[in-house]
Amino acid sequence: MNYYKLLLKPQDVLVDVAEGRTLKEAMNDAGLVFDFPCGGRGTCGKCRVKISKGVGTPVAKEQELIPSKELDAGVRLACMTAVYNDLTVELPDQTKLQHHILIDSEKKDMQVDPHLKKVFVEVDKPSRETHSSDWRRLKKSLVKQGYMGSELESSVAILRQMPDLFRAANYRITAVMFENVVAGLEAQDTSKSMLGMAFDIGTTTIVGYLLDLYSGAELCVVSTLNPQTSFGADVISRLTFVGHEEKGLMKLQAAVVEAINKLIAEAAERAAVTRSQIYGISIAANTCMHHLFLGINPQSIAVAPYVPAVSEPLVVDALELKIDINQAGKVFVLPNIAGFVGADTVAVLLATELDRSEDVKLVIDIGTNGEIALGSRGKIVACSAAAGPAFEGAQISSGMRGAVGAIDHVYYRDKLEYTVIGGGKPLGICGSALLDTVAGLVELGIINKRGKFIAYEQLNDQAAKKYKENLIQHEGQGAFLLADAGITGHGRPIMITQKDIRELQMAKGAIAAGIRILMKTCGVETEDIKEVLLAGAFGNYLNPHSACAIGLIPEDLESKIQMIGNAAGTGAKLALLSLSQFRRAADIAETVDFVELGSYPKFNSIFGECTYFTVK
Amino acid sequence: MNYYKLLLKPQDVLVDVAEGRTLKEAMNDAGLVFDFPCGGRGTCGKCRVKISKGVGTPVAKEQELIPSKELDAGVRLACMTAVYNDLTVELPDQTKLQHHILIDSEKKDMQVDPHLKKVFVEVDKPSRETHSSDWRRLKKSLVKQGYMGSELESSVAILRQMPDLFRAANYRITAVMFENVVAGLEAQDTSKSMLGMAFDIGTTTIVGYLLDLYSGAELCVVSTLNPQTSFGADVISRLTFVGHEEKGLMKLQAAVVEAINKLIAEAAERAAVTRSQIYGISIAANTCMHHLFLGINPQSIAVAPYVPAVSEPLVVDALELKIDINQAGKVFVLPNIAGFVGADTVAVLLATELDRSEDVKLVIDIGTNGEIALGSRGKIVACSAAAGPAFEGAQISSGMRGAVGAIDHVYYRDKLEYTVIGGGKPLGICGSALLDTVAGLVELGIINKRGKFIAYEQLNDQAAKKYKENLIQHEGQGAFLLADAGITGHGRPIMITQKDIRELQMAKGAIAAGIRILMKTCGVETEDIKEVLLAGAFGNYLNPHSACAIGLIPEDLESKIQMIGNAAGTGAKLALLSLSQFRRAADIAETVDFVELGSYPKFNSIFGECTYFTVK
After folding, report:
1. In degrees rounded to 5, what are phi and psi of residue A102?
2. CATH number of the CATH domain containing A14
3. Strand A529-535 with A561-563, pairing
4. What DSSP letter does each residue of A131-176 carry, written as one string?
5. Dihedral of CA B571/B577/B580/B586: which sign?
6. How far apart are the first and last CA of chain B?
7. Residue B336: its chain A contacts at CB < 8 A?
8. pLDDT greater than 70 at residue B6
9. Are residues B214 and B296 in the same domain?
10. ipTM entry
11. A12-22 CB burial, b ≥16 within 10 A, e <16
């Protein structure tokens, strides 16, 4: 896939955008706050931006809503402009180029305080008087910079560099310090340059953020499919692979490390930096991906009592993990909470600052597993709900990931309408459209409490009868047609089958049961919850009303829902930029109470209830 | 070369002996105290031992000195019995199977206190209540054993072992601890088994001692030629190789590591243990060998101001250096003092305890470089004298190392007599015989103060005239014939030439000047020096009288000379067995004052004087 550079003015933020993504999606992906009053449907005309470089032909909706003079000047709608070349876009001045969550954070926490520090020193030349060794003279220089001489440590790898480097650099040396350890040495004063990358390793997708460790500026974002998917789509199938395939663990580890190294190379190329300028990477991942990344057998996570091998935060030499950055580089691995609530949840909590919140908040990161946390300062409980892959479009007859060609939103208007990612012919539906569709079916009474299609003749709601054409039979059961074979990209119809609805019920039932059990555990009612923060790609994309209409999230909470983007990624960034945030992650992992849903009393009946729909 | 097992009774000490070495030499090599009143010449008949297994035919001197009944019972002279098969030897009961130096040491220091500790724990099984990770439960077990939970550390390599190992061992685990770091994990209780090896890496020879880290018992001794000799015989030629040959440094490092790994394998095989039972090795070496072993460029040692890259003691993972022992194993590298006074000298000082001595002592370790230390508790000065390889038989026309066929001692009796290592035909002379020969030439006035041969006609001493046959001409200059071509193993004459004497003058002049300068630096006279301790293979082998007669060591000190065997090896053993001794080594390296001879005022004239002989 091609990527283009999107330069956002006046903030001068550079974002890399996959071909065909809209400006709305690109800003959303980057976690930027921008207002789309009509939800990005191209109807309100409010999301105007000015494209000062690279502007293309306006689409019909833009011609309709924007005066031609402004069109000529490059004004476009962010929700309608797809990216097919490098663009420079001027945003309205008040646009906040930050995550919601970062805006809410106390400023002091965002102060950059990296784990690694660079210290430029002029080392004494060797002297006949003292016969002092290279290492001793370096220590002397570092003591002048405030280090404790007796605590300074080095390694054979560093000692090997000293003699030649010192002499070649005429004793002008930049030491890369990790606490009291000299982790790297460089010739001359390079103390102004230090980059890092934060990674969120998802079961399906790996996202990496290249950051300047001094300014905190994000230089670019890169992402790729987790190549472990070729060994198994979900956590359980990968655990099976580890158990049955010889050297399976090391194969999976090598695959993810290779993918990360490719992302590092890609990010370095795009930002026009070298890999050796990158000194640290941070890792947020679920417990299984965490263990696989480190090459630790994760199988104990899958069997009762579901304990991980390690939950503490780790700092590992990049060399040991074969991560291709500066040879002094470190890998900062966020801690896990339990077998199914991993470092990705810790990262989300780090970003959302639930541990510092006076208000009770509910945080949901929906992926193949839904990680849910509820609480405020003093007490947070978390659980993992096995939603399965329905929200990601898998196990759904016409399902697909949220890529070009996916129907992403569905609207029950005079007739059924939908939007397609990239704007072309539809190829399938992604999770957000599944939610929209089923929400409509529930609200129109087309399916009943148990999710079963009602025969057309028995429909009560007149509005429902408008969609007669969409109500079809498939394999002897009711189904709902979204796009006829004649208008799809592949010539097959796109529909929601009875089985698809069952899959969705399982998925939403798992999440809803998790929320209900956490609320019971905390003794919290919906009115006590001040905010619902939806994290993750899917959480960021769904229509909150649809989520509530199907009962994924309690209806009372609809108005409290906020999308917070890839909060796990944001947490990984925080942990990379700031030692104190990394330490805070350890405290979070230590104090969050894990609720194991499977052993919760009456879990099965609660889950069963939660698979139902609330029909008016 | 073949090696045979020598079992010494009643102490049950097993020593490995190279083919052809005498029992005297074998005991000497192993640092055992045994009395040879005639110096091992086979004349006094006092060094009787009983060979209860593997005895061979007695040599003439034994038949002469031992009654036939005793001969039949296996009684032999230790100085005359060469080893050509496995032997069991019964020593007189009073034989002390210890180094001199260890006898003198305070008992408490020999208490075994290894760096690595093994702790057997029964780790809690995983529980549904706590969801506590494997690592956390291991920490809990270690805390019960007195460790501080918050200070315990692990590594990815160890974490990788936990899940499978814990379950396979049913949570009965032995942790190998290095301070607060879990360095290794083993199934079940292996806490009773931990071995180590101490290495003395010489420029020419590498010696390794396999030790039980709990009892301190020595299981066997192995040695080999330093394979770096094929890249250069001495330190300077190896430095040149590093400077000129691509990847020269890494080639030299790989060579020494390979040799050490072979010695480890050999020692393990002989002692019937596995390499994985070996958890630590210690390294004593001169500064250049030290740097080459670690893969650190040593070239700065060779150019003014002669500083090493590192002087501090180091603890390195065996894996990092590719040392083939237990994967949790550590390498303990003794510290250097300066560019030419290395960790071997520190080891000698550790063994001789100069830093604790009330009396002033002079310690000399003669090799290609002579390391000399003088002092007592409170002040020790040390220097390195560039003796060159003459004492090792190199650069000497008929010279050879102290191996089978070497004339090792020379006696001026009615006619010239000598002993040959292994007892066969002579092939050359080694350093000790060179000393004996030249000492006689000096004492008989056959050479003058400047080392020049006097014409036979001008000899004053009647005794000298007895050796008329030996006084020959070679290439137009005087020379001294030791063995005529007709009686040597190779059919060439063995002699000492004028040039050989010049070489010896340079060598002994360097050492003597070093001693003189250290004495001046300390303000010490010969009468202040209570002991002269000669370390190293050559120091252990020379005739003290000869050494004083040629002026290598001041004559007044002759009666104070003690041979202390391979003290560098003993120091390496102490540093391996005891953490406190390893730390003491750091203190020694820190406090010993290094005197750089080359920059000492009037060094050249002092050296020049010291090359002269004192003729009566």
Report:
1. -75, -30
2. 3.10.20.30
3. parallel
4. ---HHHHHHHHHHHTT--GGG-B--HHHHHHHHHHHHHTTTEEEEE
5. positive
6. 45
7. 133
8. yes
9. yes
10. 0.78
11. ebbbbbbebbb
Which residues of chain B lie closer than 8 angstroms to A162, CB-CB?
296, 309-310
What's chain A's length in residues?
A: 616
Is pLDDT above 60 for A12?
yes
Q: What is the pLDDT of residue A111?
A: 60
pLDDT above 90: percentage of residues in chain A: 66
For residues A63 and A128, membership in a common domain is answered with no
Residue B529, H or E segment: strand B529-535
Q: Taking a C-beta distance cutoff of 8 angstroms, is the pair B564, B99 a contact? A: yes
Q: Quick one: pLDDT at residue A505?
A: 96
A82, A88, A89, A95 alpha-carbon torsion, rounded to 10°: 120
B163 neighbourhood in chain A, CB within 8 Å: 296-300, 309
Of A128, A155, A159, the CB nearest to B596: A128
Comparing CB atoms, the residue among A126, A294, A307 nearest residue B131 is: A307
Contacts of A160 in chain B (CB under 8 A): 294-297
Out of B160, B295, B307, name the one closest to residue A126 (CB). B307
Instruction: Read off the amino acid at residue A362.
Output: L
Counted domains in chain A: 3
* pLDDT, tens only, A378-411: 999 999 998 888 888 888 999 988 778 899 999 9
H or E stretch at B288: helix B287-294
HEC-encoded secondary structure of A381-443: EEEEECCCHHHHCCCCCCECCCCCCEEEEEEECCCEEEEECCCCCCCEECHHHHHHHHHHHHH
Position A104 confidence tier, pLDDT thresholds 50, 70, 90: very low
Integer Cα distance of A37 and B280 in angstroms = 69
What is the least distance, in Å, from the CA of A86 to any CA of chain B?
Answer: 42
Contact list in A for residue B314 (CB cut-off 8 A) is: 156, 159
pLDDT exceeds cutoff 90 at B555: yes
In this predicted model, what pLDDT tens digit does every residue of A523-550 receive, in sequence order? 999 999 999 999 887 877 889 999 999 9
Question: In which band, very low, low, confident or very high, does the pLDDT at B423 lie, cut at 50, 70 and 90?
Answer: confident
Among the three residues B161, B187, B213, which one is the final residue of a domain in this structure?
Answer: B187
3-state secondary structure of B196: strand
B80 and B143 together in one domain: no
Cis peptide before A305 (omega within 30 of 0): yes
Query: Structural domain of residue B295, as residue ranges?
Result: 195-333
The per-residue pLDDT for range B105-114, each reduced to its tens digit, is: 333 345 678 8
Nearest to A42 by CA among A55, A60, A25, A57: A60
Alpha helices by DSSP H, B458-523: 462-465, 498-522
Distance CA A210, CA A218 (A): 6
Which is nearest to B420 in space by CA: B490, B468, B467, B504? B490
Of the candidates A534, A535, A527, A532, which has an alpha carbon nearest to the alpha carbon of residue A556?
Answer: A527
CB–CB of B310 and A159 under 8 A?
A: yes
Residue B562 buriedness (CB in 10 A; 0-12 / 13-18 / 19+): middle
Answer yes or no: is A607 within a domain. Answer: no
Q: Do A162 and B309 touch (CB under 8 A)?
A: yes
Classify strands A3-9 and B561-563 as parallel, antiparallel or unpaired: unpaired
Residue at A469 is within a domain: yes
